[in-house]
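Exercise 7.
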Amino acid sequence: MNTWPVQDAKARFSELLDSCVKEGPQLVTRRGEETAVLVPIAEWRRVVLAARPSLKALLLSDEGRGVLDVLPVRGLAQRRPFQPFQD
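Solution. The predicted structure, written as C-alpha coordinates, is:
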Protein backbone atom coordinates (compact mmCIF):
# COMPACT_ATOMS: atom_id res chain seq x y z
CA MET A 1 0.00 0.00 0.00
CA ASN A 2 1.47 3.32 -1.09
CA THR A 3 1.27 6.36 1.16
CA TRP A 4 0.39 9.77 -0.24
CA PRO A 5 0.57 13.09 1.62
CA VAL A 6 -2.69 14.97 1.10
CA GLN A 7 -0.96 17.71 -0.91
CA ASP A 8 0.41 15.14 -3.40
CA ALA A 9 -2.92 13.29 -3.50
CA LYS A 10 -4.73 16.51 -4.42
CA ALA A 11 -2.15 17.60 -6.99
CA ARG A 12 -1.85 14.16 -8.64
CA PHE A 13 -5.32 12.72 -8.07
CA SER A 14 -5.56 10.94 -11.44
CA GLU A 15 -2.22 9.23 -10.73
CA LEU A 16 -3.49 8.27 -7.25
CA LEU A 17 -6.63 6.84 -8.84
CA ASP A 18 -4.63 4.86 -11.43
CA SER A 19 -2.37 3.47 -8.68
CA CYS A 20 -5.42 2.44 -6.70
CA VAL A 21 -6.90 0.53 -9.64
CA LYS A 22 -3.59 -1.14 -10.60
CA GLU A 23 -1.92 -1.72 -7.21
CA GLY A 24 -4.75 -1.75 -4.68
CA PRO A 25 -5.53 0.47 -1.69
CA GLN A 26 -3.70 3.80 -1.34
CA LEU A 27 -3.23 5.50 2.03
CA VAL A 28 -3.59 9.29 2.33
CA THR A 29 -1.97 11.15 5.23
CA ARG A 30 -2.51 14.63 6.62
CA ARG A 31 0.31 16.16 8.68
CA GLY A 32 1.88 12.70 8.91
CA GLU A 33 -1.26 11.09 10.38
CA GLU A 34 -3.11 8.34 8.48
CA THR A 35 -6.39 9.92 7.40
CA ALA A 36 -8.03 8.00 4.56
CA VAL A 37 -7.69 5.05 2.21
CA LEU A 38 -8.68 4.99 -1.45
CA VAL A 39 -9.73 1.46 -2.48
CA PRO A 40 -10.91 -0.03 -5.79
CA ILE A 41 -14.70 -0.23 -6.10
CA ALA A 42 -14.70 -4.05 -6.31
CA GLU A 43 -12.91 -4.30 -2.97
CA TRP A 44 -15.22 -1.69 -1.41
CA ARG A 45 -18.32 -3.62 -2.49
CA ARG A 46 -16.87 -6.87 -1.16
CA VAL A 47 -16.18 -5.29 2.23
CA VAL A 48 -19.61 -3.63 2.43
CA LEU A 49 -21.46 -6.83 1.52
CA ALA A 50 -19.40 -8.85 4.01
CA ALA A 51 -20.25 -6.38 6.78
CA ARG A 52 -24.00 -6.50 6.11
CA PRO A 53 -25.60 -9.91 6.65
CA SER A 54 -28.50 -11.05 4.51
CA LEU A 55 -32.00 -11.10 5.96
CA LYS A 56 -31.91 -14.90 6.09
CA ALA A 57 -28.60 -14.89 7.97
CA LEU A 58 -29.92 -12.27 10.39
CA LEU A 59 -33.11 -14.21 11.12
CA LEU A 60 -31.18 -17.43 11.68
CA SER A 61 -28.65 -15.74 13.97
CA ASP A 62 -28.95 -15.42 17.73
CA GLU A 63 -30.01 -11.78 17.36
CA GLY A 64 -32.90 -12.83 15.12
CA ARG A 65 -34.04 -15.45 17.61
CA GLY A 66 -34.35 -13.05 20.52
CA VAL A 67 -37.35 -12.72 22.78
CA LEU A 68 -40.14 -10.59 21.39
CA ASP A 69 -41.10 -8.03 23.99
CA VAL A 70 -44.83 -7.46 23.81
CA LEU A 71 -46.55 -4.84 25.89
CA PRO A 72 -48.62 -6.35 28.70
CA VAL A 73 -52.36 -6.40 28.29
CA ARG A 74 -53.92 -3.58 30.30
CA GLY A 75 -57.44 -4.87 30.31
CA LEU A 76 -60.47 -3.98 28.27
CA ALA A 77 -60.59 -0.53 26.81
CA GLN A 78 -63.56 1.53 27.91
CA ARG A 79 -65.30 3.89 25.57
CA ARG A 80 -66.45 7.29 26.71
CA PRO A 81 -70.03 8.11 25.94
CA PHE A 82 -70.55 10.27 22.86
CA GLN A 83 -71.12 13.94 23.64
CA PRO A 84 -72.23 16.09 20.74
CA PHE A 85 -70.41 19.35 20.13
CA GLN A 86 -72.19 22.35 21.62
CA ASP A 87 -71.67 26.02 20.77
